Amino acid sequence: MIRSVVTGTGSALPARCVSNEDLTRDVDTTDEWIVERTGIRFRHIAGPEETTATLATDAAKAAIAAAGLSAQDIDLIVLATATPDQTFPATATKVQAALGINDCVAFDIAAVCSGFLYAIQVADSMLRSGVQRRALVIGAETFSRILDWEDRTTCVLFGDGAGAIVLEAQESDADTGRGILTTRLHADGRHNDLLYVDGGPSTTGTVGKLRMKGREVFRHAVVNLAAVMDESLALAGLSADDVDWVVPHQANARILDATARKLGLPSEKVVVTVDRHANTSAASVPLALDVAVRDGRIRQGQIVVLEAMGGGFTWGAAVVRF
After folding, report:
1. pTM, two decimal places
2. Residues whose CB falls within 8 Å of the CB of residue 94, separated by 6 or more in sequence, listed in order
3. Quick count: other Cβ atoms within 10 Å of Cβ 216?
4. Do the Cβ atoms of 305 and 233 come closer than 8 Å?
5. Which of the residues are catalytic?
6. Angle CA(313)–CA(162)–CA(34) in degrees, nearest 5?
7. CB burial class (10 A; 0-12, 13-18, 19+) of residue 214?
8. Residue 77: enclosing H or E segment and its boundaries?
9. pLDDT digits over 114-145, tens only?
10. Is the distance from CB of 11 to CB of 287 less than 8 angstroms?
């Protein structure tokens, strides 16, 4: 059968790293308060010359190099972001141009923190259809541009960054072959007011700022993420015991711990980067994945579960034999 196989990963972070102590100079908060409630210690903040497109391009270049390819080998770019460079055109087309690709399919997906999972399912479907062969799937954000820096309950939670993978359509053994085994996506728009941005071209004509009711988001996240991971594993004919690694959306250390406990997974199987990157929305899963691939934890043949939940609410999971 044809499956979409991960052949390379890459990531990029802004040059400026901001510690909790750095934040206390401008925000009414403390390092202890942030760490106790979120597990976050550092985040990267984009400078004036760094944008979602530049970060995405750097992550894409790293993923292409890791796959042993050239940019001209890519015929599909799906970029997940809630913070595009422009209202239009798609930031994916800016990445395409920066990579020197003259013609390929390129578009953005907006599903906030779940965007990378949505992008994976779309790219996987297109590759398995035979229309395209190699895809760049990117999650990239500059959330610092939409934060209210006077709201200490939200501004300390987020950072900027990008992560990317190369997917390639390959012949794969149905039982033991590599590739994406299953993906499951969900959305429930009734919860818009729990996590949203209070602006937009069609409503206020402004970009707006992020607003969140953290306690309610936490409750939904633990329930939804555990459920969709169970669902995706069942579709793949697997159980939690078969999982080598979970690469979750890096929103909050408490959510990661609670979700792992609900699934009966040991914390040692969960890739955690929230302490150094904070919440990078659609970038957080591919960023964490690249870290774990490059440090040798994630290896070929292992079962890896990717999962995320974000504004909308949207949520999803993917099971991959790496």
Report:
1. 0.97
2. 53, 57, 85
3. 13
4. yes
5. 113, 249, 279
6. 65
7. middle
8. strand 76-80
9. 999 999 999 999 999 999 999 999 999 999 99
10. yes
